[in-house]
Structure formats: structure tokens, C-alpha cells
Amino acid sequence: MGPEEIFDPSIADGQRDSRPSSAGAERCPAEADVNSLLQELQRQAAARADLEQAVQRLRAELARRTQQEAALQLDRELYQTLRESAFRESEERYRLLFESAFDAVILYDTASGSFLDANQAARTLYGYSREEFQKMTVERISAEPDKTRQATRRSVTDGACKVPLRYHRKKDGTVFPVEATCACFSLGGRIILCTVIRDISERIAAEQQAAKYRDQLRGMALQLSLAEEQERRRLAILLHDELGQFLTLAQLKLGLVRDPARHFDAADGKLLADIDDLLSRANRSARSLTFQLSHPALYDLGFVPAAEWLCEEMRRLYNLHIQMSDDAQPKPLDVNARVVLFQSLREILINVAKHAQVSTARLDVQRVDSTVVVSVQDMGIGFDPGFTASRGRACGFGLFSVRERLHHLGGEFQIESEPGHGTRVRLQVPLTTETGKEQDRENP
After folding, report:
1. Does pLDDT of 273 surpass 70?
2. Are 431 and 370 in contact (CB under 8 A)?
3. Which residues contact 366 (CB under 8 A, 6 or more apart)?
4. Which of 158, 294, 353, 392 has its CA 20 to 30 A from that of 310?
């Protein structure tokens, strides 16, 4: 059969069907192939659709995971930023606390002893800069390196330690006492020792001064006890050698007068005159002793008249001539102030008479604002006040006693002296007023 027959349009469907069955037999395999091809295409289309859906799901999953990764990266970046910010803030706080600490703080490696850092107080205390510290070891600032190494080892073993007293050295070579508190911590595989150091020079000096003060008080108590006993002895001698002898002689002479067998004659007048003289001398001795114990003028007339009497006594007893001047201003002082000021002045004048090696001195009494100022000056051999007090001489204890008594009243005691250049002492007490009988007569 030729091609014309197969594709001839004039042939009707019925006619085509009426043709021999060999053509139908040829068409059936072709249709089956087409159907199979269509089915394969449909299957591939379905598979492609499934594949596209899978691709879409993968893309969605990829997009989701990309978003998650971006979010995680953002979180990581934010966390790192916050961490760096917190670290910087923590470091700033540490630096602020480290630098503003009142005590010296140093950090050093326990293995090498090399300094890592030192705050401003440490740099000021020792005189080194931060750069100089970082080039040094801890033994450079220690005046006791062996003890410093021992303290470092103890701190590493125990984790911390307290050192009550060590001696360190400044950049200029000055050695001074310190107390230290040490604590260890790990940093980068190294053991670092943080040490807080406090200069205790003032405390040590105060403790030494307190110990010296206690020694002076004990010495003064001993001196007062001895002075009290010496005063008792002096009074006993005065009573026995002067007043007692005068009264004994007067009594013997009166016994002669009272003798019944005696006839009075012209010589009896001389005997009575001797008795009168002995009684007068006994009276003067008693008055002198009374004035020495407690001068009535100090209570009845005031400080200035009592000071004038004291100047006369210094001339009579020690041949010390005192030129006294008073500004004539009222100086109201209560009894306690008058007694302390008078006793202090007597102590000073006796020291001048005994130690200054002069025969003259000057006494000035003035009212300055609300205080009374008494100045004693001599041009004698002078002395070193510090040396005298440290040696505990009697003169030193006397001056110490004067100072303490005046300070108790709120007054002041000043002494200026130098070997070979004389001495000037200044006593000052505040003005006070009492009512009644004990009011100072110098108060108008």
C-alpha cells in the first residue's frame, strides 16, 4: 500500500475501516507505544513535580537555615560585643578602684618577682613610675629581701598572708616601716601576688612617742616621790635647825628669868632683849616656812604680787637678780590657774639659778588677748631641750611636769634654748574668773 492510500482524505472512515485488517494490525502497536510514551511522560512529569516540590522544600529549608545561621551569627556578634563591653567596663572599674585606692597596691609574678603593675599610691610612696616598676623585681623595694621571699612563699602556699611589720626602701634610699596584706590568684598560667601596703611610719613614731611619754611619766612619778621626801626632809631640818633652836633658846632664857632665887638687875634687860630677838627670829622663820609652803599673797592678792615675792626669794636664796615687768592689765585667774602658774614659774626660776650660770634674768608678765603670758629669759649657757628630756635629767623631768600641768589647764609651754645662747621660756594660761572668795584679787 502506498502513502496515497493511507492519507487520502476522500476515503471515509467507514471505508477506511472496511479495508483489510492488516492496517489495523499495524496501528495497534503504534498506539501502544504512544500510550506507553504518554504514561512515561506523565510519570516523569509527576516525578518532576515531586522533584520541584522537593527542591522547593530544600530551598525553604535552606532559607530557614540561612536565617537561623544569620540569627546565630548575629547573636554571636552581639554576645561578643556585650562581652567585650562588659570586659572593658570591668577593666575600667578595676582600674578605677586600683588607681584610687588609698593604700599602695602592687602586683608581681611570684615565680620571677617581676612587677606587673603598681597603682598611683604605690608610685607616690616609692617614687618610681609605672614603667620603672615594670622593669624591677620586688626585692628592689625591700630592705629585707630574705623575709620578702619567705612571705611570698607563704602566700603561695596559704593563698594569703598578713605581714604586720616589714621595712621597705624608696627610690631615694629612705628605709621606712610598712604593713602588708598579700593574696594570690592565677592569671594566664602564672601565680600573681596582689599586695596592699601601708606606710606605718607615723604609727611607729606615735608608738615610740607614747612609750617615751610613759617612761617620762614613770620618771616624773619617781621624781615627784623623791621631791616629796626631800621636801619633808627640808621642812624637818628647817623646823629643827631654825625654829626649834630659836624656841629652845627662848625657853632656856625664860627659865632663867623664872628662877625664884634670881634677883633682877640691869643684866636682866639684856636677857629679855635676847628672848624677844629669839621669838622674832622664830616668827620670821615660821612665816618664811609658811610662805614657801603656800604664799598667802597668791590667794589674797593675786599672781603678780606672789611673783614679785618669788623674785625677792630668788635674790635672797640664790643671789639671782630678776628684773620683772608687768603691763598692769587685769589678769583674772582662778585658784588652780594661779597655783599652777606660780609653781611653774618657781620651777623655771630655780632651774635658771641652778643651771644657767648667770646672776641676772628677766621676767615679763603680760595679758595677751584672753590669756596670761609669763616669759623668763636669761643669757646663760643654754642647753639642748631634746637631749635633756631624752636623758631623763631632773631638769628635764621638771620641764616635762610644767608642760603637763599647763596643758591640763588648756595652756601652753614653749622653750627656746641652744648651748651657749641662753634660754627663753614662755608660759601661757587662759584667763578664768571664779565668783566668791576664790576670785583673783587682780580682777578689778
Report:
1. yes
2. yes
3. 326, 327, 329, 372, 373, 375
4. 392
For residues 433 and 302, what is the distance between their CA atoms, to the nearest angstrom? Answer: 12
Length of the chain: 444
SS3 332: coil
User: pLDDT grade, residue 32 (50/70/90)?
Assistant: confident
pLDDT digits (tens, 9 = 90+) for 185-215: 888 888 999 999 999 999 999 988 888 877 7
- Supply the DSSP symbol for 262: P
Residues sharing a CB contact under 8 Å with residue 167, sequence separation 6 or more, in sequence order: 142, 143, 144, 175, 176, 177, 178
Q: What is the pLDDT of residues 150-184, one digit of tens each?
A: 888 888 888 888 888 999 999 999 999 999 999 88
Q: Nearest CA to 110 among 156, 75, 64? A: 156
Bridge-partner residues for 118, per DSSP?
Answer: 106
Sheet holding 321-326, edge to edge: 321-326, 360-368, 371-378, 423-430, 412-417
Instruction: Give the phi and the psi of residue 360 in degrees, each rounded to 5.
Output: -135, 155
Global pTM? Answer: 0.46
Whether the pLDDT of residue 389 is over 60: the answer is: no
Q: How far is CA 91 from CA 83, 101, 117, in A?
A: 12, 15, 14
